[in-house]
Amino acid sequence: MRNFRFGKLRAIQKIVFICLFIFTASIVYANPKVISVTMSPTNPTFGDAVQITVTYCSQNNNSAMIDIAISSQPTKTSAELSGNGQVFVVSRAGIDVATSQPAATTGGEIGWLANANPNGGTANCSDCAANAQSAIRTVAYTVHVPPASYFPGCNVTKLYLYVGMKDQNLNAPEWVGSSVCSSDPAALSWNIGTITKNFTISKRTEGVVQAQDDLVLFSIDYEYWNGPLTITDVVPGGGDLALVSYGPTSINGVSATGPAVGATTGTFSWTMVDRTGQPGTASGTVWMLYKELKNPPTANTKYTNSATGTMTGVGSKTANATNTVGQAAISILKDQSEANPNYGANITYYLTYNVNGMQLVAYQPIDDIATGTYGTLNGTGGTTVPGWSFVPEGGTEGQWTIADACSTGDRVITGAVGATKEYPGLLYNGITGSKLCGGIIESDVLINPNGYEGSDAILLIRSDGVSPNGDAYAVAISVDKNIGGYTGGHIEFQACTPACVWPTPTIIGADPTITANKWWRVKVWIDPANQYHFRAKAWAKGDPEPAGYQIEWTDTDATRKTTMNCNNGTNWKAGYGEQGGDDGTNWAKDSYNNFVVYNPRMSASTTVWDTVPNAADGSVTYTGEQGPYTGAYSGGVVTFTLGSISDEGGTLTWWGKVNTCNPITNESWIGGTGEVPQKSNQVVASPYCAEISGLTKTTTAVSPVILGDNVTWVITYCNDGVGTMHGYKITDPVPAGMSCVGCTGGCTGCPGTGTVTWSLGDIPKGTCNQSVTWWGKITSVP
Asked: Which residues fall within 8 angstroms of residue 50, CB to CB, at 6 or more apart?
């Protein structure tokens, strides 16, 4: 991987440093002289509170700036290099604020004001420039020794305290040489004690279980100190998951225990090296990879996996992770043309399907590879890393070392390059016959700056591995503060064809603020629908994964897109890209672990089907369909055959005639070979059926009527509509000059009121030639 931009910036940075060094040398006469430094207590451990007292000599008419750092290094190191084991506890960032980079920008001020311009005082000492117009002063600060996690390495046995002073504007490049007089006291140092024993564990799961043979990964990230740690776990799934592999299988020569490959039950146990009495912490990951056995899996089954960590004197802690079968890999959404169709009209149903999500297709922990050295530092022909292939650059394939630095069995691979500024890489060969044109790459990445504040590590998204120009897309995590206005570490994209560019991404999430010598989990997404569209994120290993991605970029450069076309026949792969130092020094020693690849899910022999509502009684009559795939109607079911599809969505349509006045409920399904069928939401339509009532009225009255005559009225009714008439009621006002004597059919209001009423309830469709009757007497004649 070529990295010209970092090279240019590094060269510029060196010039700036030289200028600042010359400037510093020219004003050294004003530097305060540190007379003594004391610390109480004298041998604290990580996290302890201490009081640091500094006595110094400074000019009477000058202010004095001070910085205090605690370090695991025997000498001062760059104040702009994160993760190097040097942590400032008094700086521009504040008192008792732990930071490895106190300057907000490259070359910025880092000093804390020890005293303002005193404008006088007893001249009783001489400063670094032998200026006798100086006075002795004392400052004291209460701070905490930073936690062990600030100091890289498993066995930090000694800490150092450094003080730097200057009269004003104490900048980052001046830190290493600040307040260096022949009579300055040497740095304080002490053997670090052990931390109170304890440990942490966290659990995560990866992979969507949707079909038989789908892979699911359970991992346990841990950190422990000053004690023995044992981690146990069991095979989840109740017999539905079979073990593919687990690891590490050996820790410092002692085998871990676990069931055989293919087992559906069993217990795992990892016993870590006993760190009782040892300083510092050790961390790592244990893992279990399974495959789904059922065909198809049972939807919504929850595979909950609980790991237990145990340490003598601490007790037990548990961490859980749950993988739910059938989560959103394939889906279908149902809609209808209207909620109240007219009787006899068509109703149209829309079936919107999606096949998306990612399928875990490869998991490569470095634990499976033997420790040792691979490749060559200044040439080619070295031993190949099993399962990987070299991407030589500048005539060298790089030197890659696999080691278990903390004796936890959690092996990692670390790269190194020679003095010719090359950027070699490794490509993963574990995905047979598949180009990485779309999907997800995820891995653990650690930057070891090795003394350089511009360091970065590369996760290759797509590299051909054969081009002499090293064509590739990549994502980088970096602690270089010179780039793009960043004030700290960051994550960015890179494209090389062959010259490298670092496009300005769209920021869509929180800046992860990358630091060195710390494990970061890096994930990059390649859009299956657009192979030039990328998203990425990084978070501290062991922390919960942040929702969403942090940066996004779509490559629109036509020339680069032609060169980097994943469909052009080249065997594009993902992997690691090691970095080199542009000043000719072997800077790069970045580490990588736990490489995971997801491909867009393929749904084989996919069908979408929909049962015509109440087809047996003719409530809806199927009349037609359309869509990107041909449908067929048989046995009351509309079926669309989609075949084998991946990362695809669309809408299928069918329609039918409404033959009912009753509510119509409908839902549809999608499924493929060996997959969990997914049901859509349910839709309900309530047809509108107009009530058509035939009503006639006859009488026995003979005109003219005579006072006292009896008259009978007959009302005949008929339901001529398309459905049942609900709550049917007939009312008939009694004419003036008559009284109601009686009625048939269960009337009310006769005798006694002026209206006769029949409440007949539901009248089914086609109910005709029915009648009700009432009769009365003529009580007056006009």
From this structure: 39, 40, 41, 44, 142, 143, 144, 145
Among the listed residues 505, 467, 501, the one whose alpha carbon sits nearest the alpha carbon of residue 486:
505
Tell me which residues of the chain have a pLDDT lower than 70.
Answer: 1-30, 326-329, 356, 419, 432-435, 466-469, 481-488, 580-588, 615-617, 647, 690-692, 722-723
- Say which residue the tokens 């440990």 belong to: 199
What is the CB neighbour count within 10 angstroms for residue 143?
A: 21
Taking the C-alpha atoms of residue 339 and residue 684, their distance in angstroms, rounded to an integer, is: 7
Distance CA 451, CA 8 (A): 18
Q: Please check whether residue 328 is in contact with residue 282, taking contact to mean a CB–CB distance below 8 angstroms.
A: no
Domains 330-356+603-685 and 359-600 share a fold: no
Its sign, for the CA torsion 28, 32, 35, 39, is negative
> Domain 330-356+603-685 belongs to what architecture?
Sandwich (2.60)
The three-class DSSP label of residue 425 is: strand
For residue 558, what is the enclosing H or E element?
A: helix 558-563
SS3 26: helix
List beta partners, residue 425.
391, 577
At residue 17, the pLDDT reads 33
Q: Where are the beta strands (DSSP E) in 659-737?
A: 664-666, 668-671, 678-679, 683-685, 693-699, 710-719, 725-733
Which residues lie below 8 Å from residue 23, measured CB to CB, with a gap of 6+?
A: none
Q: Where are the chain's structural domains? A: 31-191, 198-324, 330-356+603-685, 359-600, 693-778
Architecture of domain 31-191: Sandwich (2.60)
* Both structure tokens of 717: 């009714």
Q: pTM for the full model?
A: 0.73
The Cα–Cα gap between 711 and 775 comes to 6
DSSP helix/strand/coil, 414: strand
pLDDT of amino acid 690:
64
- Bond prior to 296 in cis (omega within 30° of 0): yes
Yes or no: say if 80 and 101 are a contact pair by the CB < 8 Å rule: yes
The CATH number assigned to the domain with range 359-600 reads 2.60.120.200
Q: Residues with Cβ < 8 Å from 406, sequence gap 6 or more? A: 154, 273, 282, 283, 284
Q: What's 563's DSSP letter? A: H
State how far Cα 350 lies from the chain centre.
Answer: 32
What pLDDT score was predicted for residue 432? Answer: 64
Give me the pLDDT at residue 12, please: 30
CA angle 751, 752, 753 (to 5 degrees): 110
DSSP string, 214-235: -EEEEEEEEEEESS--EEEEE-
CA distance 54 to 99: 20
Give the pairing of strands 282-292 and 241-247.
antiparallel
Cα gap 272→251, rounded to integer Å: 7
Dihedral over Cα of 334, 677, 216, 310: its sign = positive
Tally of residues, the chain: 782
Element (DSSP H or E) covering residue 24: helix 4-26
Which residue, among 246, 364, 360, has the nearest Cα to 307 in the 3D structure? Answer: 246
Report the 10 Å Cβ neighbour count for 317: 17
